[in-house]
């Protein structure tokens, strides 16, 4: 049985993962409107991954005899001034999620909840990857710039996510 404190913290994390999903779907909509189908594809897959993160926590809480209590998800931004600014926001958001996962892990350590620690180690590793990927795309955008050929090439590259 999971403690009430950890149950609350996991429910809060479920909300953050669903918000991430909503945020990336909003970014995908922006990319569609900017005629960047590759960016939109990448962001839609990211949206699905975030739902997967939320559902992993949902399932875990049930398995531990906890109670899932879904919370309101606020409206994400709908406008992003450029692809570079958008990926700056992706990276910033992933850093925020990493900090939140780390706090959750600290709670599990404090409570000597070993099962929760093991489950959260997956998320800690996942966040390393999430930040690295966002950072790589952001660096490419900064180097290549946002005009013409370079942006088109990056869009094509992002369109291949999930196909290699
Ligand atoms: Fe679920 Fe992108 O962190």
How many helices? The count is 5
CATH superfamily: Ferritin, core subunit, four-helix bundle
**CATH-derived architecture:** Up-down Bundle
Please give the number of β-strands.
0
Could you tell me the CATH topology label.
Ferritin
Report the uncertain regions. none
**CATH C-level label:** Mainly Alpha
Tell me, briefly, the overall form.
elongated
- Assess the beta-strand content as a share of residues: under 5%
Class derived from helix and strand content: mainly alpha
Ligands, ions, cofactors: MU-OXO-diiron
Give the biggest beta sheet.
Answer: none
Oligomer: single chain
* Element pattern in H and E: HHHHH
Average pLDDT, rounded to a whole number, is 96
Quote the distance from N terminus to C terminus.
41 Å
User: Number of folding domains?
Assistant: 1
Alpha carbon gyration radius? 17 Å
Share of helical residues: over 70%
Describe the overall structure:
This protein is an all-alpha fold and 164 residues long. The chain has a single domain, classed as Ferritin, core subunit, four-helix bundle (Ferritin, Up-down Bundle). The chain is built from 5 helices and no strands. 31% of the residues are buried. Bound molecules: MU-OXO-diiron (FEO). The site of MU-OXO-diiron has 7 residues, from helix 1, helix 2 and helix 3.
Short characterization:
This protein has 164 residues and is mainly α. The protein has helices spanning 4-33, 37-63, 83-110, 114-144, 148-158.
């Amino acid at each position: 049985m999971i403690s009430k404190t950890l149950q609350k913290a996991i429910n809060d994390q479920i909300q953050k993962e669903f918000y991430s999903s909503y945020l990336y779907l909003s970014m995908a909509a922006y990319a569609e409107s900017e005629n960047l189908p590759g960016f939109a594809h990448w962001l839609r897959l990211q949206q699905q991954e975030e739902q997967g993160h939320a559902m992993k926590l949902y399932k875990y809480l049930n398995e531990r005899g906890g109670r899932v209590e879904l919370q309101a998800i606020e409206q994400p931004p709908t406008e992003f001034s450029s692809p570079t600014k958008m990926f700056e926001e992706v990276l910033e958001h992933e850093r925020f999620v990493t900090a939140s996962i780390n706090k959750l892990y600290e709670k599990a350590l404090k409570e000597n909840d070993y099962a929760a620690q093991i489950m959260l180690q997956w998320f800690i590793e996942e966040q390393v990857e999430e930040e690295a990927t966002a950072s790589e795309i952001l660096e490419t955008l900064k180097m290549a710039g946002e005009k013409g050929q370079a942006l088109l090439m990056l869009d094509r590259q992002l369109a291949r996510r999930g196909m290699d």
